[in-house]
Amino acid sequence: MRTLTAKAGNVLIGAGNPIVVQTMCNTHTSDVDATVAQCVRLYEAGSEMIRITVPGPADVECVKSIKSRLKELGINVPIVADIHFSSQTAIMVAPFVEKVRINPGNFHRDHNEARKQFARLIEVCRENGTAIRIGVNHGSLGDYITNLYGNTPEAMAKAALEWLKMCEDADFHNVVVSLKSSNTIVMVEAYRKLMAAMKEKGVIYPLHVGVTEAGNGDSGRIKSCVGISTLLSEGIGDTVRVSLTEDPEDELPAARYLAARYGHKIVSSMTSISLQGRKAVAVYDAPSRETLLLDVACDFGKRLLDKTLDELELTGTYVDDSGDKISIQESGLGAYLVDELMQAARRRFYKPEYVACPGCGRTMYDLQKAFEEVKSRTSHLKNTVIAVMGCIVNGPGEMADADWGYVGEGNHKVTIYKGKTPVLKHIQDTEAVDRLVELIEKDQ
Ligand code: SF4
Predict the structure, then answer these.
(1) Probe ligand 1: pick from 51, 241, 357, max atoms within 8 Å of CB?
(2) Could you count the other beta carbons within 10 Å of the beta carbon of residue 218?
(3) For the structural domain made of 2-262, what CATH number should be given?
(4) Does residue 61 register a pLDDT over 80?
(5) Chain centroid to CA 8: how far?
(6) Does residue 358 have its Cβ closer than 6 Å to ligand 1?
(7) How many Å apart are CA 5 and CA 11, to the nearest integer?
(8) In terms of Cα–Cα distance, which of 71, 100, 98 is closest to 12?
(9) Is 229 helix (H, G, I), strand (E, B) or coil?
(10) 99-102 and 79-82 beta bridge pairing
(11) ipTM
């Protein structure tokens, strides 16, 4: 078995190297000052790799400026160019960054042309020592692959294998693969299938793991930890991103926790566990609410996803912000965390399922505010999947299996989707949530 390492600048990914923590800027790349400032904050907060969006050729000069400004500041954190819909931009930016992320589903509209452009990208990356991430997303697999395998975890793994084969045929091995979905079951199954296929072929490529469009707050963190920890506990995953609809700085504590826990540097605050059939009663002595939340998600995510456990009860204490020890059960936190965990593992839904992208340089409106508003106005609507996406270019394609979509167009206008179909276009943002709620209620 050959286990490969990818190299992005001074960072090694895979083959037993420490798990690499990364995040992504949500600034406009054309705003060089803001992007440099955010990169500095992310680097100082522990991001070991930083992705920035590169929407088109005009942004390549900005990327060069960002890189040289960071270098002047003595910051050599690898920069990853995030590419959608423009294979030419990938080829143009590759000499100036440490890694290029492409999405096979939208690299080029024509599959044959996509293969030719990818061959060109590989040559540029080879010449410049640039790594490539083959970043497959469940929501944007593209017609070529879904016509063959449907919109399935198998299709995600097959898409990655096809693009890996192109790398292998070109004798290019500086590659990382990701297979993201906002559905934890789909995401875990896709990575497991890919790992099994790589083992069968005898070559293991490094994997970037994450739950995409996980949302925000406790739900986003728990969902991310359920999916990512399940894989890391099986030795699947070499670099992680906890993708939240919040400022990217806020993603890093959970990502660092996962890297430390599965790098065997920290352990759970669970002090005991008793099993009664398929129910577990776990006792915690947690140093904070946040640690408790992450510990619980990692301790039980895999067992719930794999259905080796059906019920869970959490007891013990955690320390609140004032330093007081609080009873997990009496405060109601235990029952709430179990509800969140059951939903993240898709065992039981106690509220709508939200899919929300983290936003990036393509976002043209206040995504975080809109998502909070949508959540607060729709929390009573059960058995519904509602997506809130940051851009009209990529958002609709990435909404995966959402029943409803709220997609900002910029200029304070919103398009509302039912499934993949736009049903209301160019709605003023001040009335968009009302219209969305009306439509959902009418449909129920
Ligand atoms: S869907 Fe969200 S994260 Fe993806 S490109 Fe658009 S704004 Fe960026």
Answers:
(1) 357
(2) 17
(3) 3.20.20.20
(4) yes
(5) 19
(6) yes
(7) 10
(8) 98
(9) helix
(10) parallel
(11) 0.99
**Residue among 51, 89, 391 whose CB has most ligand 1 atoms within 8 A, to mutate:** 391
Q: CATH homologous superfamily of domain 353-443?
A: Sulfite Reductase Hemoprotein, domain 1 (3.30.413.10)
For 105, 132, 150, 219, the CA distances from 238, given in Å and listed in that order, are 23, 15, 28, 24
User: What pLDDT does residue 142 have?
Assistant: 85
DSSP code string of 148-211: HH-SSHHHHHHHHHHHHHHHHHTT---EEEEEE-SSHHHHHHHHHHHHHHHHHHTEE--BEE--
Note the pLDDT tens digit of each residue in 258-293: 999 999 999 999 999 999 999 999 999 999 999 999
Q: Where are the domains of the chain?
A: 2-262, 270-344, 353-443
Distances (CA, A) of 335 to 13, 307, 326, 338: 38, 19, 14, 5
Decide whether 2-262 matches 353-443 in CATH topology: no
User: Which atom in ligand 1 lies closest to the alpha carbon of residue 367?
Assistant: 7
Query: What tokens appear for 50 in the block?
Result: 């930083």
Question: Cβ(93)–Cβ(61) under 8 Å?
Answer: no
The 10s digit of each residue's pLDDT in 71-122 is: 999 999 999 999 999 999 999 999 999 999 999 999 998 999 999 999 999 9
**Residue with the nearest Cα to atom 3 of ligand 1?**
359
Across 28-67, b (16+ Cβ under 10 Å) vs e yields bbeebeebbebbbebbebebbbbbbbbbeeebbebbeebb
Mutation pick for ligand 1 pocket among 241, 362, 393, 414 (CB with most ligand atoms within 8 Å):
362
CB 51 within 8 A of CB 23: yes
User: From the CB of 370, is ligand 1 less than 6 Å away?
Assistant: no
Q: Is the CB of 391 under 6 A from ligand 1?
A: yes
